[in-house]
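QA checklist item 7 of 12: single-chain prediction sanity check.
[x] sequence parsed
[x] length recorded as 147
[x] structure emitted
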Amino acid sequence: MQNSDALALTATLLAAAGDLTRRIDEGVRARGFDVRPAHGFAFARLAPDGATVTELAAHLGVTKQAASQLVDELVRKGYVERGPHPADARARLVVLTERGWACTRAAEEVAVGVVRRWGDVLGEGEMSVLRDCLGRIAPYGPIRPAW
């Protein structure tokens, strides 16, 4: 692969990911949720069983202090709550509230709509190939924002 081809592929993948993130953000906001994309990445870790602030920090690739500030903001907005940890009396478990779950469902609906539009452009066969190819090269691990 030539450098120009590699750079073009890089730009295309980043543009597609950025567009998907932007569309999810716009769709969620249009449905009345006052969140940012970083919140969605946190929600992905908190669903379904919750997480400690330390676990959330590791997932997002930020300090515990930054994760704690994010959780404080989400608590104030009514998307998450802190409660006792079932296995560690010293820890607090952060879980989604019903509002947090509703926001998560809204983001999933928007994402499905965006991907359907990609399918309209590419067709079912090419979408299957795209999904399989990206699945083979995408790293396993947390999906986190690029700060």
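[x] summary fact logged: The CA atoms of residues 25 and 99 lie 16 Å apart.
[ ] second reviewer sign-off
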